[in-house]
Specification:
Blueprint: E1 2-7, H1 11-21, E2 27-33, H2 36-46, E3 52-55, H3 64-74, E4 79-84, H4 89-97, E5 102-105, H5 110-121, E6 126-127, H6 129-138, H7 142-145, H8 150-160, H9 165-172, H10 176-190, H11 195-204
Parallel strand pairs: 1-2, 1-3, 3-4, 4-5, 5-6
Keywords: DNA-binding, Phosphoprotein, Transcription, Transcription regulation
GO molecular function: DNA binding
Domain Response regulatory: 3-121
Length: 210
């Protein structure tokens, strides 16, 4: 028997999913929650028997991307399968970077959904064709081709906070000249022309942890 958790902020979706999955003999919905924070709270004391979390992406308090990231940090044995209506790059890439094991869409039929859950639990990576198409069409993003160093990531985090070069140099205990060099490298690697665009890029693609 596979034990799973449903996380979606729409109750009607959760109830519908529970009904559909109740028709199977080997998938058991142990709990359902309307946001990632509640899911993590439950798992603190009940994670051993959970095989998979089926989660939406856009939710209050904690979205599916952050839920995935924390789940993979704390409970590596639990699989994460995204079930969402969103098929744009700005959602797809961040959740896979967070560690998602699969990404399917809500429009798929029941048999495909059930099989996807089983396949992910058994160790397969499951990606709906519509999602694969987006990944193939967009190719690698600049920050995936040009990996930021640990220090560059730290500088970018400070830039997102709105810190000046002087403030960054004081926070990271380096010279202002060194900060300027890092900023230049960051702009080149992200293929943007200024700090504002770097901030927008970092937030859009969720490339730093706050």
């Amino acid at each position: 028997m596979y034990n799973i958790i449903l996380t979606d902020d729409h109750q009607v979706v959760r109830e519908g999913m529970k009904f559909l999955l109740s028709m199977t003999t080997d998938i058991n919905v142990v709990k359902d929650f309307d946001n990632g924070a509640e899911t993590l709270d439950y798992l603190e004391n009940s994670h051993d028997d959970v095989h998979l979390v089926l989660t939406d992406l856009v939710m209050p308090e904690m979205d599916g991307i952050e839920l995935t990231r924390q789940l993979k940090e704390k409970y590596k044995h639990i699989k994460v399968l995204v079930l969402s209506s969103y098929t744009s790059e700005e959602y797809i890439r961040p959740v896979f970077r967070a560690g998602a094991d699969g990404y399917i869409i809500k429009e798929m039929d029941v048999d495909e959904l059930i099989q996807s859950i089983k396949n992910v639990i058994e160790g397969d990576r499951v990606v709906h064709p519509d999602i694969s198409k987006v990944i193939d069409e967009t190719g690698n993003l600049p920050h995936e081709r040009n990996i930021l160093s640990k220090r560059e990531t730290e500088v970018l985090k400070e830039i997102v906070k709105g810190q000046s070069n002087k403030e960054i140099s004081e926070a990271l205990f380096v010279s202002e000249k060194t900060v300027k060099t890092h900023v230049s490298h960051i702009l080149n690697k992200l293929e943007v022309s200024d700090r504002t665009q770097a901030v927008i890029y970092a937030i859009k693609f969720n490339i730093i942890d706050f």
